[in-house]
# Entry
Amino acid sequence: MTVPQNVLNDPDCIFCKIVAGQIPCHKIYEDDTLVSFLDIGPLVPGHALVIPKSHYRNIFDIPPELFARISAQLPALACAVTTAVEAPACHILLNNGSQAMQSVLHLHYHIIPRKNGDRFFIPWRPGSLDTATALKLVSEIKNRLG
Ligand code: 5GP
Ligand code: ZN
# Structure
């Protein structure tokens, strides 16, 4: 794998070890800023990951310009991955922080192809939003956006 000199590396991070070539992976794409490879524990066939070569824990840490470059590759990567397994749909999933199910603390997108009748399931139980709560939340979020 080509590793530019300015890449940030955490020697204890499993994905940094993949970038450094210390751990093998089934690579599907690489450029100067990112690499994409098959997930070692696929939730469904074709499950792939997309990571920056530099070590950033999550979207709270990564420079927005780098995040944008990685995100810009997702349409092409997701299209190639899903069509390769003849799936009509996919999740683009980013677990951001350990409480949000991020187990490898090096930012990564999951591409998870979906087909009717596959065995993958996300429990999705919508709550309800009352007006007072919504108005308070919108105000607090807007204050933080400045
Ligand atoms: P997270 O839970 O952090 O969003 O997802 C981490 C993903 O990385 C998991 O789906 C897991 O299977 C995958 N993973 C962990 N270690 C390795 C590895 O050494 N190689 C590959 N290819 N995937 C890995
Ligand atoms: Zn890392």
Notes: Residues 131-145 form the longest helix (15 residues).
